[in-house]
């Protein structure tokens, strides 16, 4: 629904502007015509235009949006619906304003005689190189509906893998946030109450209590800005350093070697590589082009560099499995399965099986990691609360001794 405005004349002859909410200018005109004697030109409200532009600017095309579009487009093309008509129908149904605008523009270009992949390449915010390359392969081979179905499956698998990790980490993150808030609340509001009691009684305070009182005073004063500013500055410097080639390489290498999470990061990257590479080769994309496209989806610079080096080896006539093995990044099992795929001529099928295997491994690793993190967090929360309570109750013993 949009907001429209028009000059109207009521039955007494008075002329004024009237706003109306409707799904189209025609519907707005029909509603106003039934209410007033005369209706002028229908225009979209400036407020509605501003809101639409803001919504378009803030919206982002998600993997789910692309997966749903790919699935629906595949069904329509397979049913014999013309590409231009299918794009127009899906644009009308698209809930995402950015995707809707892109589909309308793509439909107009295809109607003028341009290829679908060429039109999509002009909207990188909606369709990346992976998507465009697969569509181009589908157009060339005359199997666009099959390729779109594979794209939908690929995007659904990628979304599933991400959601598994997000959902598993959601609980620890929420518990951690509440733990920090509870610690800050007790430190800022509870400790000062005890501080007043200790001051009145003149009790001798142990070192732990003095430290907690100091921390409470710091958090309640302007000095709290110092650690907050330090944290924000460190975060900014970290992001800036990660954007540099050397920084990205060092940090990504650490992500692969860090305790507990390193193995999970490696398996996730291998699963993405094999899933995307297998889908691309099955869709008819040349192998060397597959390497270029896959590098944009891996998400780890160390593995990207290894894949790039492997590509140079393959350009000279080497095998994919041997080229990857030289980089010593991929697990031996993945290399062996890829080697078997090359020998049997079923590389795409074997890549998909490797991806299935490591996606299952990621799922199991996430569950195991969660089972480890949860009790550790409970111990950490208990430790924080216990430290605060202990620091407040320790002086009580000296007070009791004085009273005795």
Automatic annotation (TrEMBL):
It is found in: Cell inner membrane; Cell membrane. Keywords: Cell inner membrane, Cell membrane, Coiled coil, Membrane, Transmembrane, Transmembrane helix, Transport. It holds the Pfam family T2SSF. The chain crosses the membrane at residues 170-198, 224-242, 376-400. GO terms for cellular component: plasma membrane. One of its GO terms (biological process) is protein secretion. Residues 69-192, 273-395 form the Type II secretion system protein GspF domain. Residues 144-171 form a coiled coil. Belongs to the GSP F family. This is Type II secretion system F domain protein. It comes from Stanieria cyanosphaera (strain ATCC 29371 / PCC 7437).
């Amino acid at each position: 629904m949009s907001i429209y405005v028009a000059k109207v004349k009521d039955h007494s002859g008075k002329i004024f502007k009237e706003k109306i909410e409707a799904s189209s200018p025609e519907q707005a005109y029909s509603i106003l015509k039934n209410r007033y004697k005369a209706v002028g030109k229908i225009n979209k409200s400036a407020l509605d235009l501003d809101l639409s532009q803001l919504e378009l600017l803030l919206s982002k095309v998600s993997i789910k949006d692309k997966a749903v579009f790919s699935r629906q487009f595949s069904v329509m093309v397979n049913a014999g619906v013309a590409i231009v008509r299918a794009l127009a129908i899906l644009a009308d149904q698209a809930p995402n304003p950015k995707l809707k605008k892109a589909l309308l523009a793509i439909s107009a270009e295809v109607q003028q005689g341009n290829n679908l992949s060429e039109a999509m390449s002009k909207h990188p915010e909606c369709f990346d190189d992976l998507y465009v390359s697969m569509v181009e392969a589908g157009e060339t081979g005359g199997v666009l509906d099959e390729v779109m179905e594979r794209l939908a499956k690929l995007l659904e698998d990628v979304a599933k893998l991400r959601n598994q990790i997000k959902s598993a980490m959601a609980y620890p993150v929420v518990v951690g946030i509440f733990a920090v808030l509870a610690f800050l609340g007790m430190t800022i509001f509870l400790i000062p109450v005890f501080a007043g009691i200790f001051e009145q009684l003149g009790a001798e305070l142990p070192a732990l209590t003095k430290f907690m009182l100091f921390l409470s005073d710091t958090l309640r004063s302007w000095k709290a800005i110092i650690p907050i500013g330090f944290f924000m500055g460190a975060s900014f410097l970290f992001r800036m350093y990660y954007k540099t080639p050397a920084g990205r390489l060092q940090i990504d290498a650490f992500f692969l070697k860090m305790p507990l999470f390193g193995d999970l990061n490696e398996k996730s990257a291998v699963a993405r590589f094999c899933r995307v590479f297998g889908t691309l080769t099955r869709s008819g994309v040349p192998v060397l082009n597959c390497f270029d496209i896959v590098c944009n989806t891996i998400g780890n610079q160390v593995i990207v560099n290894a894949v790039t080096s492997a590509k140079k080896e393959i350009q000279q006539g080497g095998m994919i499995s041997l080229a990857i093995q030289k980089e010593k990044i991929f697990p031996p099992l993945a290399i062996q399965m890829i080697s078997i795929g090359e020998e049997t001529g079923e590389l795409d099928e074997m890549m998909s099986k490797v991806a299935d295997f490591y996606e299952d491994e990621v799922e199991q690793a996430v569950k195991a990691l969660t089972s480890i993190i949860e009790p550790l967090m409970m111990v950490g929360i208990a430790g924080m609360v216990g430290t605060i309570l202990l620091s407040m109750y320790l002086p009580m013993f000296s007070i009791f001794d004085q009273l005795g």
